[in-house]
Design brief:
single chain; about 20% helix; alpha+beta; about 400 residues
Length: about 400
């Protein structure tokens, strides 16, 4: 049995690129950017009004002028036609290009308007107020986003503003999911008193969806070694095979044996964690890597986050994931020398981590309300109230 850190390192050593592809901007959320993104021009591309109001030349204010003649209204997307002279001003709207002859804006709330005359009602103003100068956000040709970069909805705003209607991203791996067990039935099927529904199949699909990965194949195999061998052999052209169940030490836990028979090289089997101790990881020569995860729902969740996500992060070249550290709103004692993970909720002001009650790794509600996983290290037998706890977002 190896440590969590050793297991994760072995997983990362098998990381590889799946190539690159170009996708439309509307399909880019959740993908990993694989090209540098540069500014095509200064941003803002002009001196931009940040308030509705009036635009004047500061020299007039310094000469004691407080009431101005309004000669033109400047709207966003429209260039001013006229230039202001002494004692003249523009009405200007938020987002508009400020004409060069104006260098400060007084907000609408600080103005009295009578016919075509605008009077400033405040006692002081400053040059350049309420104007975002050209190029203060981004300079032309500067790299705005350096790859690799996980594209979030906020990233889409930047890409669209810079004129990227399509982007180069890391290609996604082809993934096969195999669930196992005579007792496991499809979600839509009737079940008897000793059968359960196939929640892991749907859990794994949902976890992959975060990475925009749609499995190439999803199959359930009964407790039949020959059938499993045939299924595994049929998926050797994929990049990743994920199995769920039959990986421990029971009479029906034949997955490790079948994987080796199929030609897979075992890299590790059993990790000093709870839940998820029986996890198996290996690879086929010139073929897919294989993650064989324990069948209990919470174990499947934990081992996916610890190993499969670790593998994907490394494959896409993303920075290592950082755990969040927050005060622990509870207490916890463990009886093992394993790294233990448990469901937590994050909230409050100031924010704290609260444990979620659950009944072993087979509890189907363990992650129902949880925001993430709390981590109790192997050498930390007791967690006390208010001490800092490391946790991972779900």
């Amino acid at each position: 049995m190896i440590s969590l850190q050793q297991a994760q390192q072995l997983v990362k050593q098998q990381a590889r690129s799946f190539g690159k592809e170009i996708v439309l901007l509307e399909e880019a959320t959740g993908r990993v950017l694989n090209e540098p993104v540069a500014a095509d021009r200064d941003y803002p591309p002009f001196n931009r009004a940040t308030m509705d109001g009036m635009a004047i030349n500061m020299a007039d204010w310094n000469d004691g002028i407080r009431t101005f003649t309004w000669i033109e209204t400047v709207f966003a997307g429209k260039a001013a036609i006229k230039s202001i002279g002494k004692g003249e001003c523009y009405k200007i709207m938020t987002g508009s290009a400020v004409p060069e002859c104006a260098n400060t804006i007084i907000r609408k709330e600080d103005i009295d308007e009578i016919e075509n005359r605008l009077s400033i009602t405040v006692s002081s103003i400053t040059p350049g107020q309420n104007i975002a100068p050209k190029g203060t956000d981004i300079k032309k040709e500067i790299t705005v986003i350096a790859p690799p970069f996980y594209i979030k909805p906020g990233t889409i705003t930047t890409l669209a503003s810079l004129g990227y209607d399509e982007v180069k991203v890391a290609s996604l791996p082809s993934v096969a999911i195999i669930t196992t067990g005579d007792e496991v039935q499809p979600v839509e099927a009737a079940v008897n008193d000793v059968q359960i529904r196939n929640s892991n199949q749907h859990l794994l699909k949902a976890l992959l969806q975060h990475w925009k990965i749609k499995p190439a194949a999803v199959t359930h195999v009964k407790d039949d070694a020959d059938a499993l061998l045939k299924t595994i052999n049929s998926y050797k052209r994929t990049d990743i095979i994920i199995l769920s169940g039959a990986v421990s030490a029971g009479d029906a836990d034949f997955v490790p044996e079948v994987l080796v028979k199929a030609g897979a090289e075992k890299i590790f089997h059993k990790v000093a964690i709870r839940p998820g101790k029986p996890a198996w990881f290996g690879k086929f020569a010139n073929g897919p890597v294989v993650f064989a995860l324990p069948g209990n729902p919470f174990s499947t969740f934990v081992t996916f986050k610890l190993f499969i996500e670790e593998f994907l992060v490394a494959c896409f070249g993303l920075p290592e994931r950082q755990l969040l550290r927050l005060p622990f709103n509870g207490s916890r004692i463990k009886k093992t020398d394993l790294d233990e993970f448990f469901p937590v909720m994050i909230g409050g002001d100031p924010a704290v981590v609260t444990p979620v009650a659950f009944n072993t790794s087979g509890d189907i509600t363990a992650m129902m309300e949880a925001d993430g996983l709390g981590w109790q290290p192997a050498d930390k037998m007791e967690l006390a109230a208010n001490e800092m706890l490391s946790c991972m977002f779900a």
